[in-house]
Amino acid sequence: MTIDYKGKKVLIRVDFNVPLDSEYKITDDTRMQKALPTLKHILEDGGSLIIMSHLGRPMKKKNEDGSINVEKFTLEHLVGHLTDLLGVVVKFCPETVGNKATEMAANLEKGEVLLLENTRFNEGETKGDADFAEKMAALGDVYVNDAFGTAHRAHASTTTVAQFFAADAKEFGMLMDAEVTNAEKLLHHSERPLTAIVGGAKVSDKIGLLEKLIDFVDNVIVGGGMAYTFMRAQGGVTGNSLVEEDKIDLATSLLAKAEAKGVKIYLPEDSIVADKFAPDAATKTEDSNNISDGWMGLDIGPKARAVFAHVLNDSKTILWNGPMGVFEMEAFAAGTKAIAEAVAQSTSKGAFSLVGGGDSVAAVNQMNLSDEVSYVSTGGGAMLEFLEGKELPGIKAIRG
Ligand code: AMP
After folding, report:
1. Interval 168-184: pLDDT, tens
2. Final residue of a domain: which of 149, 176, 203?
3. Whose CA is nearest to atom 17 of ligand 1?
4. Which domain holds residue 148?
5. Which of 120, 180, 316, 374 has the greatest number of CB atoms lying within 10 Å of its CB?
6. What is the pLDDT confidence band of residue 380, given thresholds at 50, 70 and 90?
């Protein structure tokens, strides 16, 4: 961060969209923890903080009479914990913009912290409304965006608001900067061979990513449910495995495109198959292209694990998006675990590894390996769009 924050009122967009229990207690504060370095840096530099965030989807889950469910979605639930984390008493403003917000922002002293009400209580937020954004902008002297998780949305507090600040009065926070730097390293400055691991449930969720990857990686490892659509594209028999019939042609053309470009696609030779989608299902190991009638592939098998680990061992750059199986169930977690360990081991030998996308991040955390990969992204959808080569509005708004 390069701005001198001394004496400045800093309007900052963070992602405090944390999960709450039925008594509105925070059950996982990771997102708040991730924003702390930037918040503390600004306070230590002599600035004051005017914090904006969304929480949940209040416009989609209104009360029966059509009003906003303030009790459920208010950011006031976060005040106590944020006060503890920062060591500064956090003031709360029960509106995002308006007379009260203007007055509280104007009276804010150096080193003080003001948390504004949920940005999504305002119709203009998700529409990227300029009037609403201008009112938010008027509260601060400078603007900082540290909410990478929402950088792919052209919302008022993540994107439109930036246009009301001069180029030298807006910048990324440290989290946003780290996300962008690591993704750009992978896309533009990667050492070879570069291997992408793509897993998860469906091909249809990852089409954009797969198409883009074939343009610039050396190897693609495909696991998870989507592998069976590829198996069918090669004429395999897949029993009850998850197959998107309408994506078989697409899988065929992706395989052909990869071959034409010299990109190697690794599909799982064998699978752990189950007689039902349940933790206590009967299981056995079968070839992925010859699965018995009535059985379904729910994890990659031992041969696939060994081949994939070998490819990863020889890789200098690794991108991982999506689990290799239904890792939430112990019986089908071994494949994802083996791949997580192989990524960690390759990293320890000097490879650069980026784990991006919700479920592979959860898997790496569950296996306590998050410190053993190079970077774990916080932004699922945003990271996916970035890697697909799309220009994210929240990034463009700052960089121009
Ligand atoms: P995604 O959000 O696309 O990364 O998908 C993650 C989900 O895919 C997880 O909840 C996994 O349980 C699920 N998944 C992984 N492998 C399979 C499989 N072979 N069959 C069905 N679901 C799977």
Report:
1. 999 999 999 999 999 99
2. 176
3. 225
4. 9-176
5. 120
6. confident
**Are 124 and 66 in the same domain?**
yes
pTM for this model (two decimals): 0.91
- pLDDT tens digit string along 123-150? 999 999 999 999 999 999 999 999 999 9
Tokens of 311: 């490819």
Q: Is the peptide bond prior to 268 cis by the omega test (within 30 degrees of 0)? A: no
Q: SS3 of 67, please?
A: coil
**Same structural domain, 236 and 345:** yes
Same structural domain for residues 99 and 225? no
Closest C-alpha to 162, from 180, 144, 135, 181: 144
- Ligand 1: which residue has its CA nearest to atom 11? 326
User: 13 versus 359: which is more confidently predicted?
Assistant: 13
Q: Would 280 be classed as within a structural domain?
A: yes
Check pLDDT > 80 for residue 357: no
Q: How far is CA 34 from CA 174, 188, 223, 358, 382, in A?
A: 9, 25, 30, 16, 16
Asked whether 118 and 55 are in contact (CB, 8 A), the reply is yes
- Domain boundary residue, one of 176, 193, 221: 176
**Do 138 and 211 belong to one domain?**
no
Whether 18 shows a pLDDT value over 90: the answer reads yes
Q: Which residues are catalytic?
A: 31, 202, 358, 381
As for how many domains the chain has, the answer is 2
CA of 73 from ligand 1 middle (Å) equals: 30
CA of 157 to the centre of ligand 1 (A): 33
Q: Report the interhelical angle of 358-366 vs 334-348 (nearest 10°).
A: 80
Amino acid at 352: F
